Amino acid sequence: MIDTGVMVHVRATTKAPRAGATGSYNDGQGRAYLSLSVTEPATKGRANQAIIKELSKICGVAQSRIVLCAGARGRQKRFHIAGNPSALAAALVHAAS
Q1: How many CA atoms lie within 13 A of 19 on its CB side?
Q2: Which residues face 76 on adjacent strands?
Q3: Disulfide: which of 7, 22, 72, 84 matches 35 by Cβ 3.0-4.6 Å?
Q4: Helix 85-96 crosses helix 46-59 at what angle (to 10 degrees)?
Q5: Tens of pLDDT along 51-84?
Q6: Cβ-based neighbours of 73, under 8 Å, separated by 6 or more
Q7: Are 58 and 21 in contact (CB under 8 A)?
Q8: Residue range 10-51, pLDDT digits in tens
């Protein structure tokens, strides 16, 4: 069972010069993504773990509260972040702007 929280769509860039949120991205289907860069390469789950670490910093929650739900091998990913939905949404909006 998934706790209360938010689902966040992430568009990942790996092997970037520095890690962090770089804005937002809208696909052609009306879905909004948080653009997130990480310095790790996309091998052996290292980039996914780095994304979880960055989301943890952005949202102020423990890494254990973040679960990769879809997109483990792709650039576009979906994560569930457990916690207060309004506080998490505010933190994500702030990071995307």
Answers
A1: 16
A2: 11
A3: 22
A4: 110
A5: 999 999 999 999 999 999 998 999 999 999 999 9
A6: none
A7: yes
A8: 999 899 989 888 888 888 888 888 989 999 998 889 999 999
